[in-house]
From TrEMBL:
Cellular component GO terms, alphabetical: membrane
Protein name (Swiss-Prot/TrEMBL): Uroplakin-3b isoform X2
Parts of the chain that traverse the membrane: 192-217
Chain's gene name: LOC108504194
Organism this protein belongs to: Lepidothrix coronata
Tagged with keyword Transmembrane helix: yes
Keyword list, A-Z: Membrane, Signal, Transmembrane, Transmembrane helix
Signal peptide from the UniProt entry: 1-20
InterPro entries: Uroplakin-3 (IPR024831)
Length: 247
């Protein structure tokens, strides 16, 4: 035992580090693939699978989603507490490398998944608290197109106990500039569309002219009709003899 006495201070120093070790679980967050969803990514949100059957051994843990930019994720520390200025949504990304949101417990992520359960998380869906400093864990709209990285972090009290790996980079949708919008429609060029429009207008004018001409000549012909009796017949109906002979 005596030879171990000089090592005792070193062992005492290592105990807190061992106690604070964070387990890396074998799971990586990802965008939802099934079911196929409309709006999987939008201009300010994206949809993740819930971490079902991932943190089952940590029954007392609170599970948080950590959201970072790809360029700032490496600067996030697991020792940062949720609900503080150092992890507040309102300070991201200007003064904090990541924010913590969507806290849950294992009761929210039952394993196995009951039939019919909704098992997705939409990140960025809360608009009402995005500017509210009193809601630092707000799941507010994402401030730009990204790319973003996310991971889940399990805390027991204030102690981090387990984490997933970071996701693959996630890009949001961006509006197309007017210069990038195609000038074709169904394979037809803009010039072809303009030519078709002009020809349609000319055809309509020609058709209207033909209708007007037929109406005009029809009225003129009707106004010029005369009846000429044939020789040997009176203009009076029922009188077969010439008018000067009388009937």
């Amino acid at each position: 035992m005596l030879p171990l006495l000089p090592l005792l201070p070193l062992l005492l120093l290592l105990l807190p580090a061992a106690h604070g070790a964070v387990e890396r679980v074998g799971y990586t967050p990802s965008l939802t693939k099934s079911p196929v969803l409309e709006g999987l990514t939008t201009g300010s949100t994206f949809v993740l699978d819930q971490p079902r059957c991932v943190f089952d051994k940590y029954s007392n843990a609170d599970i948080w989603l950590v959201v970072a930019l790809e360029s700032t994720a490496a600067n996030f520390s697991n020792s940062v507490a949720p609900g503080t200025a150092e992890s507040a949504f309102q300070n991201f990304p200007d003064s904090v490398p990541a924010y913590m949101t969507l806290n849950a417990t294992l009761a929210n992520y039952p394993c196995p998944k009951p039939a019919g359960d909704i098992t997705v998380l939409r990140v960025g869906s809360e608009t009402s608290c995005s500017g509210d400093a009193a809601r630092p864990t707000c799941n507010g709209p994402l401030p730009g197109p990204g790319p973003y990285l996310v991971k889940f972090l399990a805390l027991e009290g204030s102690e981090p106990v387990a984490e997933t790996g970071w996701s693959q980079p996630i890009m949001l949708r961006t509006a197309k500039s007017s210069n990038s919008i195609s000038t074709t429609d169904g394979g037809h060029s803009a010039g072809m569309i303009a030519l078709t429009t002009i020809l349609s207008i000319l055809f309509a004018i020609l058709l209207a002219g033909l209708v007007a001409m037929f109406v005009f000549w029809g009225r003129r012909a009707k106004g010029s009709i005369t009846f000429t009796p044939s020789p040997g017949h009176s203009a009076l109906t029922g009188c077969p003899c010439p008018a000067w002979e009388g009937c």
